[in-house]
Every structure is written in structure tokens, then in C-alpha cells.
């Protein structure tokens, strides 16, 4: 695979690199991505075209370029023998619209042979003013020929002319339309554009749109769902922050009355019957927002419901239950924000229970994220356990909220109530300073009792930095005087040296530990063999949760080293079983670091700036580190390892 960015490297260097690759690796190269954005060099553009032609045996080729290079590439058919996706973007020159208009016939002819090879075509981020709108006129004929497209993406919807919208009826029946920007950000936008879109989008199968309550996107989508586009099967909404909306100041009650007027206008039309409905965004779902969507479409055929944003009141759950039944619902994804109240958790639990008792729904996949209420998990496994095939529980640690964890007894209960589970993601606790009943190894052994389980995601909770089993502490490392010293104080909460040491020990996950977990599970595995195991530490940063570099500059410099150590030792591993001729081969790989960023981005930058210093830690951080892992090499990054997992006697 080769990825080249023409924006950052000199043309001479690119010429040498690409000439070397073309002559030595072009027969075996299977994937190529070329990027040429906002590059004004004529020599670079010519080199871009010549290099692309040199690769003729590509299995997957993607071109990310500007309009001028796209025009030149179309003149040479051999450039696209293996192209599967083309994205056209970049700054438009004043002469570009004129050339496109005069070359329209040639573009249409070239598009005829693309029909068998293209999967997607997108036009993104055109930087232009209203006078350059004629660029789209030249592309109408091209889009008319691309009736085989599966997805049409267009970022500049506020300047999308009616002539482009007229091509929508020619798209294939299962084509999807992506609306990543608002259709118009101006109050005086031409209203006829909305009507043209509604008239010509009758064949759309899926739609993805960014919305804010009351904006034009929501208005259009309500029209589509209530009768304008009865073919819609998949609806994905991305909630934007309210501050990005233009001219949206109506209350929820006013918006609800407007939506009722839309339904009455379309009452004689067939409403859309989507099978997938998703709402995703930072802001939770408003009190009447979900009811508007449920009234607009006929949700009786819904098979997958995703409410990733969470809700902001308990009344949402009761209103959704009153809206209509969901007899065919099979997959459910719910997100719970950290400010969820007990009342909201209780309402969600009642809704989940009634979903089974009233609607007789047989869920096959359930995914819960965020501040998951334990009561909801209990109700789910009792009500839907017999039909569940996938259970994904991914809590997220947050200051002031407990982290959902499961013991071996909890896992045994899930196994009893959910005998057909094929995929499971579950958080387990590390370093609990109580009896062997809650020991980590017993939890792994309990996971081996799931007879139908083939894919497992183990989330190791490392947030309990205040507790550690005594047999996990290395001999000779327990210095009461040193361990009792204060490392730093955060919000009147003293963090001791022993807390830092415990956090490092709990967070340390390497390939050896991942293989040990695999061995413990497979040694007691019943039924089907385990095909994939994903071991992921989480909650490592709970030690310094609440710290903001901007608020405490005097602590930022010393916590950079601690942050670097926690990031270094907290690693995720995925083990996959590949069946060969007469034996099973285990493939272990390390996915990208999954530690959440957020307000740690500044520490990331400071760590990169101090990389040489961090590689040779000194002071208290290094002393704590060396009390766990003695020095064996020049770099501390090569000395750490996960401590051996205690292996008590496991009853058969």
C-alpha cells in the first residue's frame, strides 16, 4: 500500500520516490492512495498524473485530488483500470467552470466506461463563491451517467443547484444520500430547492444528515419520512451543537406544532417504513424530538434503533413507548450520558422491560454505552436473554461516577440467562483487594463456560488505583515511608506514591498477559471454540481525572511524565484464531492506542515536545517506576511488562 501527499513534499523528491516505486514495486502493489489538495504547482500536477498511470495492477485505487487534475485524468482511460473510489476536492480557479462547461461532452463519454468499476463518487469541500456555481452545471451529465452509484456525497449543499437535484430520480434504487452540511445556512435561501429535492428523491434508500432541532435539514427529513420518500429504509441523524445552527430559535413546542402541520399535509401519502433509525451527537435527545421522528415515519418495521446521544428526561422513554409498538425490533443501541439521573435510569429500565412484555420483542443484539445503569443490564438479561446473540456493554469512566464492572458470579448469571450469546463485550475488574471469589482469573474461567461464544471483548477496569491484591506487589517494593508520601494533591485529594504504583501495575497490559487470558478462557471453553479475543485496558487515567493543564500549570510539567508512563503500559491486544491445515494459528496484533484524548491533547503535545526527556525519566516518577520494574536496558520503555497473573486453584 502506498499513500502519497503531494502537499508536503518537494516535487523533486516525489519524482525520485515514485520513479523508484514504479520500477521496483508496481507489479506487487495492491493499494494506492494519492492526495493532491490545494497544490498549485503545474509540475506537481503533471507528476501526479504520470505516477497514477504507472500502476496498472492495483486491486484498490483511490484518487483524492482537485478539479483540474480530475479533468486531466478523465482524458486517459487507462488511469482507471482499478479505481474503485474517486473524491474530487480542492480550490477552484476562476477558469475551471468555463473549461468544465465546454468539456461536458467529453466527461459524459468518459463516464460510460466507469459504470462497471465505480462504487462511489464524491465531490467535497469546493471553495467557491456564488459566481462560480456554473461548475456544477458541467457535472450534471456526469452524475446522470453514474446511476449505478451506491452513495452520493456532496458537502456543499447550501450551493447545490436544482439541476443536480433533478438527477436524483436516475440513481439506483438502493442509493444513499449523505447530507453532512445544512442544506442552507441563510434565511433567504431559495425555498424551491427544497421542493425539487422532495420531488426527486423518491427512490432514495438511505440518508445521512446533520441536523439541529428546527433547521432546514430536519424540516426536509420530516417531509421525506412522512410521505415524500416512502422508499427510505435507513435514516441516520447526527445532532449538531445548537451554536452551529443558523436562525433556529423556536421552542420545542413550536417545532412540534410545525411538524404536526407537515404530517397533516402528507396524511394521504405512504409514510416511510425504515428498518434502521439512528440519532448520534453530543447533545441528548430533547423531550419532544424523538416523538416528532416517530410520528413522521411508520416505525412498525424498525429492526435496528440507535439512540447514541442519550436522553435528557425520563419522559422521553414513556413518550417513545406511547408513540407506537416496535414488534420487529432486533438490534438496539443505547447511550447514557454521565449526567443521567436515577429517574432517567429507572425510566429506561421500565421501557426495556415493557419492550419485552408489551411488544413481545425478541432482541438479538443489545449495545449499551456510557453511564450504564446496572438495573438495565439485569432487566435485559432476564427479559431478552434467551434470544440475545450479541451483548455489548462498554461503560466509560468519568469523574464522580462509578464504573460498571462484572465479577465471576455476574458472568455465571449472564451465561445462565443468555445461553445463545455469540459475541460479548464485558468490563472486568482488576486488582480487587478482597477474596478469591472476585479474582480476575476466576472471571476468565467463567467466560470459558459460554458454549456459543466465539467473539469476546474483555475491558479491564484499571480505575481502582487505590486497591491492589497483596500478591501483585513485588517483593522489596513495599517501603511504607516512601509509599505514604504525597505525589500531588488534586481538588483536596492527596495522591500518594503507592496510588501511582498501583495504577501502573493495574494498567500494564502486554502480549504475555493477553495470551494468558486467552489460555485461561480456552482451557475451560465449552461448545464452540473462541475465534477472537480483544483485551483492552480502560480507566488508566482515572488517577488524574479532573486535572486540566490550563488550570494547574504548576502540575502540568510533572504530570506529563506520569501521563507518558500510563499511556505506554496501557496497551490493547487482539488475538485471532486462524485455522490452517491441521492446526490452529494464533495471530496477535496491537491495535492503535485506545486511551481517550479529550482534555489530554495538551499533554500529548507536551509529551511530544519533551520526547527525549520522557525517554529518560528522572525524579520521583522514575523511582516509582523502578520499584516495580528494575532497570534492564537504557530506556524505561523497554523494561516494563505485565506482572504475572496469580493462578489459584480453579475448581473443575
From TrEMBL:
Gene3D superfamilies: Ribonuclease Inhibitor. InterPro entries: LRR_dom_sf. It comes from the Eukaryota. This is F-box domain-containing protein. It comes from Ramularia collo-cygni.
